[in-house]
Amino acid sequence: MTDPTTSILVAGAVLTLDAHDTRATALAVDDSTGRILAVGSSEDCRAAAPDATVTDLGTHVLLPGFVDAHSHPFLSGVVTQEPVHWIAPYVGFPTWKDVTDEFTRVDAATPDGHPVFFNGVDRMLQGAPILTADVLDRYFPTRPAVVLDNSGHLAYFNSAVIAGNGWDATPPPDPVGGSYSRDDTGHLTGLAFETPAVLGAANVVIAEVVPHPLHSAAKWYALMARNGVTLTSEHAYDTPFLQGYEALATRPGCPIRVGLYHMSIGDDPGAVVESSAPDMLWKQGVKLWADGSPWVGTAALSFPYLESEAVAAAQIPIGPSGESNMNYTRSELDGILDEFGGQGWQFAFHCNGDVGLDVVLDCYEAALERHGLLGTDHRWRVEHCGAGRGDQFDRAARIGVTISLAPFQFIYWGDLLDGQLFPPDIGSQWQRFAAAWQAGVQPSLHNDGAVSPPIPLLNIQTAVTRTTPSGAVHGANQALTMDQALRAHTINGARQLGRDHDLGTIEVGKLADLVELSADPMTVDPHELTSRVEVRGTWVAGRRVDLPAFLADVQAIDPAPHRRLATADTHRCC
Ligand SMILES: [Zn+2]
Fold it and tell me: Looking at the structure, do residues 363 and 454 belong to the same domain, yes or no?
């Protein structure tokens, strides 16, 4: 008798990350359901699935697929993947000179008259000037050129964009919620602030530069998968994105599962989302923004910045900003929480500052009380929490609120945070991983879409070593153990996304979403994790992910119905 519907994977080790910390060497999968039939030795698995196809992965190690608990996967693909040029400091452009060399190279390599689009210039990290039209015209004297700031709050554009929109003769009015900088005569100088104005400046160019946004998004899915991710979420979802997400989720080889958080400022944030692949795509909750970003001085903080060169160059007000940086009043927040909390949605709340976190926890606690949710398994979340303190995490744990931390803030800005932006007692403690773990908020880790490349192993290495790429250690007291960091990037993320019952660990009955690593992260020096351990592949529901096939499949989809997704009026900063 043959049973072609089961398979067994044999590995050097299987780190299940289950509650008993079980280490195994094999698992058996029911291919028809993608669910795990057995975990144990290869003999155990052969006994459970005697006719299975056996694949031996040699010394490689299997873990649950990594979870990037907070992302923006569709838009990240559109604004970072070819034919857009990604020029963030940590993807090969650490200095302003590197950026301008790339400008020159791209201008020479692009056919005359074609527009160009760049994303990721970071004035603080790259030492870049303010890219007014005058500055950009030096590199792009004739073709339209748009450059997105790494913060996402700002776009720079050149004179050809101004002329192409007819804005040289008739400058546009400022849109609601955004603005354009102008000279003394009222003419635009090439800066657009906040989403509505950024879109006004960027839409025409990006629509021309990105002809197949679905394929761009698929490339970001592939980038995540190459880094071991199998599950993530969209934290700025709005209804126009559904067709794009649905198109990707329903491809048979889709490598990434996505939970959607509907922006509270979007169209019908309480709308139910029906996907024809609900295991791959589902609506998880509603998203709010408490404050802004510490790199542009818009986080709600109780303490001032240092009067340093870095702060002056970034034109950040010294502060402290306090509640003046909150995007909503408390009563506005109460209204949103009542409306959608009453409908049963989970919330996720963007918040970087400690003052912001106090307000969020005040509002959460009161709303949980009003809706009878205190003591229930509601899993309301807070995102990023750069300046969040241990006592705040303790309070979050008491009311059942969970935290998703942002190691990228520490990785790329950690050296500036500690001593340049803030004094060491504050800066070294940015992203308090250990305090969150000890509080019991079951923290996850994330990369936040295009803000940073999705590299869970780098996050894990950093959370365990508290060491930035320069080699400096900041706040060693906030280090996680390797086991904690692995759980933060797997089961804790799955729990926040409501999928811990079927994902996040390797256990009988769960879906076989796996990452294959070249070596065991528990046995290497954590400082060498990213240099000694490589991702060798992922599985989704027991099926080995084939990225070239997935990308070819998506590329073959007619782009016409999806073209407007490059410009959908839903872009919102992280
Ligand atoms: Zn975000």
Answer: yes
| 361 inside domain | yes
Contact between 416 and 392 under an 8 Å Cβ cutoff? The reply is no
What pLDDT tens digit does each residue of the chain (574 aa) get? 444 699 999 999 999 999 999 999 999 999 999 999 999 999 999 999 999 999 999 999 999 999 999 999 999 999 999 999 999 999 999 999 999 999 999 999 999 999 999 999 998 899 899 999 999 999 999 999 999 998 877 899 999 999 999 999 999 999 877 899 999 999 999 999 887 888 889 888 998 999 999 999 999 999 999 999 999 999 999 998 999 999 999 999 999 999 999 999 888 899 999 999 999 999 999 999 999 889 888 899 999 999 999 899 888 999 999 999 898 899 999 999 999 998 999 999 999 999 999 999 999 999 999 999 999 999 999 999 999 999 999 999 999 999 999 999 999 999 999 999 999 999 999 999 999 999 999 999 999 988 899 999 999 999 999 999 999 999 999 999 999 999 999 999 999 999 999 999 999 999 999 999 999 999 999 999 999 999 999 999 999 999 999 999 999 999 988 888 877 554 454 5
Closest CA to 125 of 448, 376, 470, 397: 470
- Same domain, residue pair 245 and 376: yes
Measured in Å, residue 245 CA sits from the centre of ligand 1 at 17
Check whether residue 290 and residue 432 sit in a common domain. yes
CA of 46 to the centre of ligand 1 (A): 44
142, 129: one domain: yes
| Same domain, residue pair 173 and 253 | no
Q: Determine the distance separating the centroid of ligand 1 and the alpha carbon of 172, expressed in angstroms.
A: 29
Which residues touch 412 (CB under 8 Å, ≥6 apart)? 89, 90, 125, 452, 468
Q: Identify the residue whose tokens are 């694949």.
A: 55
Same domain, 38 and 91: no
Largest CA distance in the chain: 85
- Start-to-end CA span in the chain (Å): 55
pTM reported for the whole predicted model: 0.95
Cα of 181 from ligand 1 centre, angstroms: 26
**Cα of 228 from ligand 1 centre, angstroms:** 20
Give me ligand 1 centre to Cα 236, in Å: 7
Together in a domain, 453 and 325? yes
Ligand 1 centre to CA of 3 (Å) is 45
Clarify whether residues 401 and 482 are in a common domain: yes
- The burial of 261, by beta-carbon neighbours within 10 Å (0-12 exposed, 13-18 middle, 19 or more buried), is given as buried
Residue 281 lies in a domain: yes
Q: Are 167 and 144 in contact (CB under 8 A)?
A: no
Please give the residue range of the domain that contains residue 197.
Answer: 84-209
Residues ≥6 apart with Cβ < 8 Å to 209: 83, 84, 115, 116, 117
CA of 552 to the centre of ligand 1 (A): 28
Domain count, the chain: 3
